[in-house]
Design a protein that fits this description.
4 copies of one chain form a homotetramer. By secondary structure, chain A is of the alpha/beta class. The first copy, chain A, has a 7-stranded mixed beta sheet. Chain A has a 4-stranded antiparallel beta sheet with strand order 2-3-1-4, covered by helices on one side. A two-stranded antiparallel ribbon of chain A has the order 12-13. In chain A, strand 8, helix 7 and strand 9 form a beta-alpha-beta unit. In chain A, helix 8 packs across helix 9. The longest helix of chain A is centred in the last third of the chain and has 24 residues. Chain A starts with a strand and ends with a strand. The relative contact order of chain A is 0.12. The interface between C and D is medium-sized, with 28 and 28 residues.
Chain lengths: ~280, ~280, ~280, ~280
């Protein structure tokens, strides 16, 4: 696999940003393979991916040179640099449902990601973790010990040098203090077409309302429940002949596919967030 | 075209309902072309459609005989009989947007429906009505004259013997008094995937929330705004690069198609309502 | 779980079939939970499912009585009886791709099915079979030993009393002699939207043709390659920016979901085949 | 409306193309609103759209300067320049079906396009043309006079300075000689999910094959029937209970929506063709 670098840039909209960035890359013989831009609220957002094969800067010099030659000439700039040969480290949180966990683990090889640990508030899925040779941490959470348990969770994440967290049908609400440690780094799957049916038991809500289509939504977790920036959604047609049990069965397939696409986009550094939205390039 | 009869039946769930209905039809040589049933909340719902070609009862006797031989033996029964050679009469309400009106009128011939009039609170679409030779009534509604104007609307509907009303992006909220005259007989199209984004400016709401899919919802009008039984929904994928204007453009295609499917199902007597849901057979 | 019986009936179209069947069930207090019919080519097809809870016939008498009281009065009749408390036995054939196998096994509990064995022409997926505690038979097939190997496959299927076979991306073409042993009992997943792109490397074909949507098709295997009755299809949107590798990645999700729906419909006795089509009730 | 310019560029893949183009635009204060690129077969394709509001070159000088300052430094380059304030001129060809024609005309205002004429081999749709005040030319084509009639068609297109042609369910095959006059400028809608069911009566073919999904395909016309570069496709779910008539009814909605999207993309200069594919930016 050829190594690439990716820059996610945001700054105040102004003339010539694309020219500055592309000239910088051309100067060091960086062959651009993807370039995307978006303007919203008078801000400019850009994702550019280029080959490192013949690139004239050493990996460790890219950031410094980009700062000097490009970023320092832009207003209100913010940027991240990613290298595709640095494998990110993902933690998975689960409860009792296995479908999302299975789906993630089944595509582990195609994802190019490290999964150093699975954390759960139930022991139900420990055998699956074992069959995939991934350490499984059981931390029983109740109303009283929640903050304490979250401290243990956080310690595990730090110890394993985790880059981002996937809540694969984890049925606990994270405290703001934990979320703040991983801003735009915690991906959740909600089993409805948000903003319809937030909160508990969305399939029961959908059945009661008599909708003709159900959905699933993957989003970054913020301290507002089910209100974070949406990464991906998908839907499936249902009818009156579908019971709540049928909605759950059909919905599970949506949940796992939608979550997997969100993980794919996150892993490939395709997402920039702005306000409460994502731009998926 | 071969004439058919359709019965929509609901009653308390009990043994042998389908047998009673199908034996009644078999006895008079009614060849069943469609049969569907659904059970919910301990209630039984059935739609059965049969050919009148060799049917042994005269049209005017069907209801009486069905009452005597079937319905009177069922508990808490309710039913409607429709004959496909009796063309229903539909009124269309519009405001300024033309896309749904055009779409309905363009498929007028395929629908088998009479459209005796179009009612509007603006004069904008009068030329379209004229080009299709349909009488157009302009009733300017403001805050003060609303109830008075609705009386005129109602008088027109009664005068033209209207069976059901289609709100083709009619931008006025109907009063409960008008709705009660046509229970489950007024079809609206809402430009969002309900229950997400009810009320005003759903595309602006969708843009702000950053959803990845937009939708449209056709439903029967009740006195609760955007809360009536949903008949049909559909969705379209969007991305961050779609402006509000793009959402409106893409949404218009959804609106007209979803509304036309709801009209088709209503015209073909495929819909039974129960509580706040539809069963579309 | 309440036990149910299902009858799949086909016969020459004639008056009163539904009446005969429903009266038969009503007479023995069989509460009908699903009833569907379809007429095509002057033939009548019916699926009826009823509760055995209060049904007045013993399981072993249903067939005889149905034959005497209903079937013998119908022309050119054919029917199958299924009991939902008899768990069907499914064999899975695989090669090297794991995504469909994982997906099937991950939903094993929700399926209500026995999986006595997995057969493969490669050893690649043996560890997955082992982690799910399912016997794995490796039968290396080459051009010379094909018929011999198929005899071994058939012996295994017979020995394990297999009801139906799922080809979960099994990359060998079955001989007609094997197919004939399991008519309409072998389910395949083809990685294209048939009849587009039959045969080898459909994603490469799709990329070359520049289609904007890819698909997957699940069908019963017949001796005509990729020509058997289609059970289920689904599609995903792609664009010019998707490489063949991207098509394969997106297609894998389609394949596993489409295959799982076909298995679900087969397991729930929802499918009647006629000529080269399926009616999925 | 702010005026913009669009460049569609293709050339041999080489380092620094994006830099050359964006620097050229930045130099004259052209604010880029869209930028997209794609690499395939060692060729580079780019679409860039910029505002003319403060652009430092006069409209008539852009091409010359771009040639001198950018294109002449690229290998095997090809490019087109479009100005959004120059309204394109579209001819529509129809036969007897009205649904696509209605749909196009109903959105005429939103399209920003001139429609100087409609050409047909039947008189059926003349009244629709009249109601929209568009000249309608009836040219009765039979086997003997085809080339002669096509000469008249061509003369009309030339006389009215037509930029591109839309075949809105025009049921005649164009001769290669006519197609060559408008390469990649004639848009057709085929009523199937190509490459499935090319040629005549695709809905009948789809019914016979028993597919679970039908589709429509819009493509540029080439001398190979139904083989031209695909611009847009979409699909709808069907079931065994849909007759051929139902497929046609559902398909008509697909056809008109898919065709309208293709026209939209063509009008907005979003399409580059390469070999037999389109890149829709």
């Amino acid at each position: 696999m050829n190594a690439h670098a990716i820059l996610l840039i945001s700054c105040q909209d102004q003339l010539g940003i694309a020219a500055k960035v592309t000239c910088f890359l051309a100067q060091y013989e960086g062959n651009i393979v993807d370039i995307d831009q978006h303007v919203e609220d008078n801000k400019y957002f850009m994702r550019v991916k280029w080959s490192l094969a013949k690139f004239g800067l050493a990996r460790e010099d890219i950031k410094k040179r980009f700062e000097q030659e490009v970023a320092s000439h832009l207003t209100k700039v913010d940027y991240q640099l990613y290298l595709t040969d640095k494998t990110p480290r993902m933690a998975i949180f689960v409860s009792k449902s296995s479908h999302c966990l299975f789906d993630i683990l089944a595509r582990r090889e195609s994802y190019q990601v490290e999964i150093p640990l699975i954390i759960s508030n139930h022991q139900t899925l420990a055998p699956i973790a074992k069959s995939f040779d991934i350490p499984f941490y059981y931390l029983a959470i109740d109303k009283k010990n929640k903050l304490e348990m979250e401290k243990e969770q956080l310690a595990l994440l730090k110890k394993h040098d985790i880059d981002f967290v996937v809540l694969a049908r984890y049925m606990q609400i994270l405290s703001a203090s934990l979320i703040e440690e991983y801003p735009k780094k915690i991906i959740n799957i909600h089993h409805s077409f948000l903003p319809a049916f937030p909160g508990a038991k969305p399939y029961h809500q959908a059945f009661k309302r008599g909708v003709k289509i159900i959905g699933a939504t993957s989003h970054y977790v913020t301290s507002q429940l089910d209100e974070g920036p949406i990464i991906e959604q998908d839907v499936a047609r249902v009818s009156h002949s579908d019971s709540v049990k049928d909605l759950i069965r059909k919905g599970k397939d949506l949940e796992k596919i939608v979550l997997s696409r969100a993980i794919y986009n996150h892993l490939n550094c395709k997402i920039i967030t702005h306000k409460n939205k994502t731009f998926v390039f």
